[in-house]
Amino acid sequence: MVQAExxxxxxGPAVDGPRTDWTRAEVAALFARPxxxxxxxxxxxxxxxxxxxxxxxxxxxxxxxGACPEDCGYCPQSAHHRTGLPVERLMPLEEVVxxxxxxxxQGASRFCMGxxxxxxxxxxxxxVLEMIRAVKALGLETCATLGMLDLEQARQLKEAGLDxxxxxxxxxxxxxxxxxxxxxxxxxxxxLDAVRAVGIRVCCGGILGMGESDEDxxxxxxxxxxLPRHPESVPVNLLVRVPGTPLAECEPPDPFDLxxxxxxxxxxxxxxxxxxxxxxxxxxxxxxALCFLAGANSIFYGERLLTTPNPDAHHDQRLFRRxxxxxx
Length: 328
Ligand code: SAM
Ligand code: DTB
Ligand code: SF4
Fold this sequence. Notes:
This protein is an alpha/beta fold. The protein contains 12 helices and 10 strands. Strands 1, 2, 3, 4, 5, 6, 7, 8, 9 and 10 form a 10-stranded parallel sheet that branches. Helix 2 packs across helix 9, helix 9 (about 215-225) packs parallel to helix 10 and helix 10 runs parallel beside helix 11 (about 285-295). The protein is globular, with a radius of gyration of 19 Å. The model is unreliable at about 1-15 (pLDDT under 50). The structure holds S-adenosylmethionine, 6-(5-methyl-2-OXO-imidazolidin-4-yl)-hexanoic acid and iron/sulfur cluster. Iron/sulfur cluster (SF4) binds near residues 68 and 75.
């Protein structure tokens, strides 16, 4: 190799701005890069788009828990699985506001409300619109994840002041049918279209550790990075293996494959916040640091995700200090 080519190989291909025309072969080639080169490239891209020591923190609250009619194989809230999770009806507004105040006091910039619904009914949506108005009035960014939405529902959420909607692709289109049978990949894409159409920002990512192959990880990131616009937030979840769910016995992935996935997401979607999401309880501080180096610049923060534990806020604050990370 001549000198210039060797230097180009070290730097990797130039990335000037968010591209949505990535080919599957390009995504596969990124995954195949030597680990050190991939991390170096991801870190360079990261620094072009974000201050390297900055981290965005979101806090989750389950506003309606369990008894979900969907059969998502990873999810403790599905009525199809026996996980012993207590079912909780829609939370009263005051409790939601109190939780949002606590999240704000602990330094969260975004508050995400999750409901175990296939899709909200109109009588479900109205109290949620109230919650969004109230949380927004506290000065927090608002996010919701309520299942499938039609255009009219998305419009109502936008009017109430919703900033982000979380709806994940979860895995590749090829593997999806092995994980969920009650809704299609296309239905997920339709909800994302509705959210985009009304001008709500999109939070969309997936889960690692569900027994998927390398090809499926390539397929997931390829789909995310070729959406008409990149999701502004890309949650990378590591499966939380909950006893009683069909995926509880899946082998956890090689931690370095998680780092690789974060790095590839960073390169493909350079201006998006890549969130190291569920599964941090099972990660060492050192592994999380590697993920931040690979381009993750957001986390879920607070001792609970929706129904499962998350590292406690003091531990995370200490981690931020040790790594010189400053919350946005
Ligand atoms: N019911 C709504 C829906 O599925 O659209 C919103 C809530 S749902 C719990 C939001 C996301 O959480 C899922 O799409 C999935 O990616 C993630 N999730 C659920 N259970 C998980 C688990 N055990 N480990 C990791 N991520 C999980
Ligand atoms: C996302 O991608 N991960 C969050 C959020 N979006 C809603 C949910 C993780 C859930 C983990 C399992 C639980 O706590 O129930
Ligand atoms: Fe229901 Fe959402 Fe869980 Fe699927 S992921 S079972 S839709 S709560």
